[in-house]
Write a structure and sequence with these properties.
Blueprint (H helix, E strand, L loop, with lengths): L1 H19 L1 H5 L2 E4 L12 H14 L2 E4 L11 H13 L6 E5 L4 H11 L6 E5 L8 H14 L4 E5 L1 H4 L5 H7 L5 E6 L4 H10 L4 E4 L5 H4 L4 E6 L6 H13 L2 H5 L2 H11 L6 H10 L22 H27 L2
Parallel strand pairs: 1-2, 1-8, 2-3, 3-4, 4-5, 5-6, 6-7, 7-8
Helix pairs in contact: 5-6, 6-8, 13-15
């Protein structure tokens, strides 16, 4: 009987914690934050503070230690230090922590450590390399969801994990008290539509920056973004426009943002975005952890051109939004 009462108490506490984190579920833009490095390859905490504050001021949530954050290239101690450091900044922004790897016991241990910190959510990736089927993935995600104390976003990224999250797995876990959303990053709109149709109890986020104008119609609630690292305010405005405008209006967003995003993925992510942020003066170096290197990117690239174009776009829409207010004030 005591074990049953304990389970009920844990369930009630999970509901209360999730209710307190309603801002997590209302956050429409999560920036998959880079991890800046010094020239010697150590973590550049001064730049990490800068980029974290920039994101919070733009109104974006922070996703730490994902593939854009080179999480798997960091040691376990470094991973924990990054999360602790960002939490101690006491930002007015929700913080999500990535959970990814192959060893389930290690991932459970990682979540247990982060449960004690001021984080708000987890991103749960498909196990790497092993290519488990529906039963194995359901067991994997259920174990992680049971361990977590905060809302969780599943992460479908077959280009990195080697296998997609089966529809049956999402259907099996979508009603778990900690299962809140899924980041769909396969690039396949049919997969997005399938999740949307058959898994109505889970929020869908695009993991593809440029596809958001089209995925909103299919039920996307927001974006987990790479380009927001370089353009925090502009990407926030882009997401809000996508979510509030008509599909016809959103089509006008596609050429500029598609081409800009293409430039940020001309070589492996996060090489281009780190190079651009270094050019912007936001981070001190473009250094990445091996096997990635900024030397993959030739000097003859379009990053600065699209940086200018995105900033011009932001200035233009900001001016258009200010005009009605100014006209009202002069009446």
């Amino acid at each position: 009987m005591s074990q049953i009462n304990s389970s009920i108490t844990d369930f009630q506490q999970a509901i209360e914690l999730n209710a307190e984190r309603s801002d997590v579920k209302n956050c429409c833009l999560w920036t998959a934050l880079i991890t800046p490095f010094n020239l010697d390859g150590t973590i550049d905490f001064a730049s990490l503070k800068t980029v974290s504050i920039n994101q919070a001021q733009a109104g974006n949530g922070l996703l730490l230690l994902g593939s854009t954050g080179e999480g798997l290239a960091l040691s376990a101690d470094e991973q924990l230090t990054v999360v602790e450091f960002v939490c101690q900044l006491s930002l007015n922004a929700p913080i999500m922590v990535a959970v990814g790897g192959y060893n389930l016991a290690e991932q459970v241990s990682w979540i247990e450590k982060c449960n004690k910190l001021a984080v708000d959510a987890y991103l749960l990736a498909t196990p790497l390399y092993a290519k488990p089927g529906p039963v194995g993935q359901t067991q994997w995600f259920t174990t992680l969801l049971d361990t977590a104390k905060f809302p969780c976003m599943l992460y479908n990224v077959p280009s990195r994990s080697g296998i997609e999250i089966p529809l049956t797995t999402v259907q099996s876990v979508q009603n778990h008290v900690n299962c809140w959303a899924i980041k769909e990053a396969s690039g396949d709109i049919n997969k997005f539509l399938s999740y949307s149709q058959h898994c109505p109890n889970i929020d869908l986020y695009s993991g593809e920056d440029a596809m958001l104008p089209y995925l909103v119609v299919a039920g996307a609630k927001g974006l987990v973004s790479v380009c927001a690292n370089a353009w925090p305010e502009a990407t926030n405005a882009y997401v809000k426009q996508c979510l509030t405008q008509s599909s016809q209006q959103n089509q006008a967003l596609f050429p500029l943002w598609q081409n800009a995003v293409d430039a940020l993925f001309c070589v492996a992510n996060p090489i281009p975005v780190k190079v651009l942020m270094h050019q912007q003066g936001v981070i001190n170096t473009p250094i990445l952890r091996a096997p990635l290197t900024h030397l993959e990117l030739s000097e003859d690239n379009e990053l600065q051109y699209f940086d200018q174009q995105i900033n011009l776009w932001l200035t233009e829409i900001s001016s258009n939004q200010a005009e009605p207010v100014n006209q009202q004030a002069t009446r």
